[in-house]
Amino acid sequence: MTAALLWVATIAAAYQALRNFETTPGRAAAAPKSWPQASRISRASDWTLVMLVHPHCSCSRASVRELQAVIESAPSIRPTVLVYRPTGFARGWERTDVYEAATRLRRTRVVIDDDGREAGLFGGFTSGQTFLYDRNGRLRFSGGITSLRGHAGINSGRTGVIDIVSSRGAPATHPVFGCAIATGNAKEQR
Fold first, then answer.
1. Quick one: which H or E segment has residue 140?
2. How many C-beta atoms surround the C-beta of residue 118 within 10 A?
3. Which of 38, 92, 134, 146 would you call most buried, defined as having the most Cβ atoms within 10 angstroms of its Cβ?
4. CA neighbours within 13 Å on the CB side: how many for 31?
5. DSSP 21-39
6. Residue 137's Cα: distance from chain center in Å?
7. How many other CB atoms are found less than 10 A from the CB of residue 160?
8. 174-187 pLDDT, tens per residue?
9. How distant is the alpha carbon of residue 31 from its chain centre?
10. β-pairing, 109-114 with 130-133?
11. Which is more confidently placed, 164 or 151?
C-alpha cells in the first residue's frame, strides 16, 4: 500500500511540475514602441512581423506552426524569423528542424541572429517572441502566439495579431512561452 501511494504521489508531482513548466511564460520583451533604427532587418511597406527563435527549443516548433497560421490568415504581413546562434558555436548549429520549418514558410525571411544582437535591439529575451509593426514603424503587438509552451492551436496571441492586421485594432500583448535567448546587449544582461 505504501508503495502504491508513493507511486501515485510521484506521478502527481511529475504532472504538476510539467504543468507548471508549460504554463509559465518566459521573460516579456522590453519592446521599443517604434522600429529600432539600428536594426539590419528591413521593414516592409505594410505590416512587418519579427519572430525570435531558439533553434534548439522544443517550444519553437509550436511558434513556427502558429506563425504559419498567421501568414495564411493575414497575407499583408511580411515576416522575418530571427534564428539565434550564440558565439562560439559552429555554423550549422542552428540548422535544426525548427530552422528548416521556418525556411519553408511563405513570404518569410529567415536571418541568423549571432549572439541575439537583433533580438536585443527589439528588446526580446524569449524564443517565440513576436513583434508586429505597422507601415509607420509603430509597435502594434508584442508577445507570443502560442497558448502554452510547445502547444499550437487557436489562442489570443495568434488571433490578436490577425485582428490587428485585418481591422487595424488596438495594440495588444500576449505572454510568450519559450526558451531564453541571450542577447548581446549588456544592458539586457542582469
1. strand 139-143
2. 24
3. 146
4. 29
5. HHH---PPP---SB--TT-
6. 19
7. 23
8. 899 899 997 654 33
9. 13
10. unpaired
11. 164
What is the C-alpha radius of gyration for the chain, rounded to an integer number of angstroms? Answer: 18
| Average pLDDT, integer, range 64-72 | 96
Question: Rounded distance, CA 136 to CA 44, Å?
Answer: 10
Phi and psi at residue 168, to the nearest 5°? 60, 40
118 close to 40: Cβ distance less than 8 angstroms: yes
Q: Collapse the DSSP code of 133 into the 3-class scheme (helix H, G, I; strand E, B; otherwise coil) and give the result.
A: strand
Question: Could you tell me the pTM of the whole model?
Answer: 0.84
Domain boundaries 26-188, CATH class: alpha beta
3-class DSSP assignment, residue 180 = strand
**How do residues 82-121 score in pLDDT, each as one tens digit?**
999 998 888 899 999 999 999 999 999 999 999 999 999 9
H-state helical runs in the chain: 2-23, 60-73, 97-103, 117-121, 156-167
Of the candidates 46, 41, 43, 47, the one whose C-alpha atom is nearest the C-alpha of residue 82 is: 41
Those residues whose C-beta lies under 8 Å from the C-beta of residue 57, and which sit 6 or more positions away, are: 98, 127, 128, 178, 179
Q: Domain map of the chain by residue range?
A: 26-188
Q: What is the 3-state secondary structure (H, E, C) of 143-173?
A: ECCCCECCECCCCHHHHHHHHHHHHCCCCEE
- pLDDT reported for residue 188: 37
With b for 16 or more beta-carbon neighbours within 10 A and e for fewer, the 132-153 pattern comes to bbbeeeebbbbbbbbbbbbebe
